[in-house]
Write a structure and sequence with these properties.
Blueprint lengths: L1 E5 L2 E5 L8 E4 L33 H6 L1 H7 L3 E4 L3 E3 L7 E7 L5 H14 L3 E6 L9 H9 L13 H4 L39 H17 L3 E4 L10 H12 L4 E4 L16 E2 L2 H11 L6 H5 L4 H4 L5 H12 L4 H4 L3 E3 L8 H4 L4 H13 L3 E5 L27 H16 L7 E7 L3 E7 L3 E8 L5 E6 L8 E3 L7 E5 L6 E6 L3 E8 L11
Helix pairs in contact: 6-7, 8-11, 8-14, 14-15
Length: 519
C-alpha cells in the first residue's frame, strides 16, 4: 500500500498496481473450453458479432489460456461482468452471487482465480451496482406484486405505481398506438432491461456492499465500477471503499469515468479511473495523419475528445494529465487505448499498424497500469459496439505474430526496467511530429523518443547527465535511433529517428543517484 498525505485525507493506493499490466477480457469472446457444456446453439465463433448473440466463451477457456498471457507479459486480468445475466455483456445481472452458468458457474471462477494466483496474476471483476436486469429477483417480485411488494423501495418507481394505480411496463411496445409508453420505473438511460437500483434504501445498500465483500473474500483482487457517477448518493462510494478495504487492504478500486475527474481520486472513493483522456491523447498524436474520423465521429465521447495532435500539443496534454493527480494516484491509473465500449485502437488509427506500435509503446512507458484490450496485440479491429467485441481469432492466419512479438518485447522491457514503471516523468523535448520523455527511478533513468511523423526527424534534447552512458534497448520492428552531440554540453544530445519510429535508452545511476559531475 502506498500512501500520500493530500490534505485531510491520506490517499492509499495498492502498491502492486504500479507493476501491473492488465488484459481486459470480454468473457463471451476470448476462449471457449470443452469442459463447459453449452445448453444450445451458439453463434459461429468467427462470424461478425451481433447485439444479442453468444459465442460461447467462458472462464475455463480463459484459465486454459493463462500461460499465453503470461508469455505475453500480462500479470493482471480485468473481466467485464461475469454474473448471471440475460445479455452477452452481462451488464443486466439477475443474480449477483452466482457466476453465469454459460461461463462455467462459480467453480469456473474458483479455478480461474486459483490458476491466476499461482501464476502471480491478479483478477479484477466488473461491478455493476447502479442498475440490474429485469430478471433480478427483487425486481421480478415487484413485477408480480406491484406496490404490494416489500421490495418496491429497492427501485425508483413512479408515483402512480407506488399508489397502486398501475403496474410496471417492463416490456413496452414503445410505439404502440403512436405513444411512447412509460415504464413506471427509472432505468439506465431509459433502457427497460436495466432498472435503476435505489442505493439510498438501506436494504439495497447492504445487499450491494455484501456482494462486493463476498467476491473479495472469494479471492478477487479488486473492482472496476460501472457508471459510478450515476449513483447520486454521495455516501455510497466512500462506504463501498471502507467495506472493501476492510476485507482486502490491497483491493484495487477503479471507476469508469471517461473524463477528467480528480475530485473522485482524493482518497475517499476510488484508487484510479479508466484513463480514457490519456488514451485519446496518445491516439491523437501517433495517428495524427491516419485517424479514422468517421468511426471517431460516430462515438459519442471520442467525437468530442479525440483530435489530431502535433508533438507540442501532445506534450502539453501530457504535462496537464501528469499533474492532474497526486503521484500515488497517477501511478495506478488504468491506462488504456480501447475497451469494449469504444472502437478498437487499430480501427481508430485507420489500420496503421506502425502507429499502433507507437501508441502501445507510449502506453507502456508512461506512469500508470497499462491495460490491453483482448486481441489488440494480434491486430484485431472493430468499430462501434458490437463490432468492437469480436471473438478472438481462432484462425492462426488472422493472428499478426509480428505485432504480438512487438507487444511482448515492449512489455518485457517495461517489466525489466523500473524507470519505465516509475511515477517521475519529464517531457524534455518536442516538435511538430516527435516527443522525448525522461523517466526516472531510484536505480536508473530512461529516455523515450517517439517520432510519429511520416518523415525522418531529429530532436535536440537536454539531459541532466552525460548522454554517452545511454544504452538503447532493442524493439522488434523499430529501426533504432542515432545519438550525436548537440550544443557542446555533456547532456546535450541529438536523437535522429526514422519515420514512425521510437527508441528507448536506459542508464544506470551511480549508487542510486547520478554523479555530481553529470548534473
Amino acid at each position: 500500500m502506498t500512501e500520500y498525505q493530500g490534505g485531510p485525507v491520506v490517499i492509499q493506493t495498492p502498491a502492486w498496481v504500479r507493476d501491473a499490466v492488465f488484459y481486459q477480457i470480454f468473457p463471451d469472446r476470448f476462449a471457449s473450453s470443452a469442459r463447459v457444456l453449452k445448453p444450445g446453439r451458439m453463434e459461429d465463433w468467427d462470424a461478425p458479432p451481433t447485439q444479442h448473440g453468444y459465442k460461447g466463451g467462458d472462464l475455463l477457456g480463459i484459465a486454459e489460456r493463462l500461460p499465453e498471457l503470461v508469455d505475453l507479459g500480462v500479470n493482471a486480468l480485468y473481466l467485464t461482468p461475469i454474473f448471471s445475466s440475460a445479455s452477452n455483456h452481462r451488464y443486466h445481472a439477475y443474480d449477483y452471487l452466482a457466476v453465469d452458468p454459460l461461463l462455467g458457474g462459480n467453480p469456473a471462477l474458483r479455478e480461474l482465480l486459483d490458476r491466476a494466483h499461482e501464476l502471480g496474476m491478479r483478477v479484477v471483476l466488473d461491478g455493476v451496482f447502479n442498475h440490474c436486469g429485469r430478471g433480478f429477483w427483487p425486481f421480478h417480485h415487484v413485477l408480480e406484486n406491484g406496490a404490494d411488494s416489500p421490495y418496491r423501495d429497492w427501485f425508483v418507481l413512479d408515483p402512480d405505481v407506488l399508489a397502486g394505480k398501475r403496474q410496471l411496463n417492463a416490456y413496452p411496445d414503445r410505439h404502440a398506438g403512436g405513444r411512447d409508453l412509460p415504464l413506471g420505473y427509472a432505468s439506465w438511460w431509459g433502457h427497460p432491461g436495466l432498472p435503476k437500483l435505489n442505493v439510498s434504501h438501506p436494504p439495497v445498500r447492504e445487499y450491494l456492499l455484501s456482494v462486493a465483500e463476498h467476491w473479495l473474500r472469494f479471492g478477487i483482487d479488486g473492482w472496476r465500477l460501472d457508471v459510478p457517477t450515476e449513483i447520486d448518493d454521495t455516501t455510497f462510494w466512500p462506504e463501498f471503499r471502507r467495506r472493501c478495504r476492510a476485507v482486502n487492504p490491497d483491493a484495487y478500486l477503479v471507476g469508469e469515468i471517461w473524463d477528467e475527474a480528480p475530485e473522485w481520486l482524493t482518497g475517499e472513493r476510488f484508487d484510479a479511473l479508466m484513463n480514457y483522456p490519456l488514451g485519446a491523447a496518445i491516439l491523437g498524436f501517433v495517428g495524427r495523419e491516419s485517424l479514422n474520423r468517421s468511426v471517431i465521429e460516430a462515438h459519442d465521447i471520442y467525437s468530442r475528445t479525440m483530435f489530431p495532435l502535433d508533438g507540442g500539443a501532445f506534450a502539453a496534454r501530457l504535462r496537464h494529465l501528469m499533474a492532474l493527480h497526486p503521484p500515488q494516484v497517477t501511478a495506478v491509473q488504468l491506462n488504456l487505448l480501447g475497451s469494449h465500449d469504444a472502437p478498437r485502437a487499430l480501427t481508430v488509427l485507420g489500420g496503421d499498424r506502425q502507429a499502433f506500435r507507437l501508441a502501445t509503446l507510449l502506453q507502456l512507458v508512461l506512469p500508470g497500469a497499462p491495460c490491453i484490450y483482448y486481441g489488440d496485440e494480434v491486430g484485431m479491429e472493430g468499430g462501434l459496439d458490437p463490432d468492437c467485441r469480436r471473438a478472438y481469432p481462432s484462425d492462426p492466419a488472422k493472428i499478426d505474430g509480428e505485432l504480438r512479438a512487438f507487444v511482448a518485447a515492449a512489455l518485457a522491457m517495461r517489466h525489466a526496467h523500473p524507470a519505465l514503471r516509475a511515477v517521475d516523468v519529464r517531457i524534455c523535448a518536442s516538435d511538430t511530429a516527435a516527443v522525448a520523455l525522461l523517466r526516472s527511478a531510484e536505480s536508473e533513468e530512461a529516455l523515450v523518443c517517439v517520432n510519429a511523423g511520416r518523415e525522418a526527424n531529429a530532436l535536440d534534447v537536454d539531459l541532466p547527465f552525460a548522454a554517452h552512458r545511454l544504452v538503447e534497448l532493442p524493439l522488434p520492428g523499430m529501426p533504432g535511433a542515432e545519438l550525436s552531440e548537440a550544443g557542446g554540453r555533456p547532456g546535450a544530445v541529438r536523437v535522429s529517428l526514422a519515420p514512425q519510429s521510437a527508441a528507448v535508452f536506459v542508464r544506470a545511476k551511480t549508487n542510486g543517484a547520478a554523479t555530481v559531475s553529470e548534473r
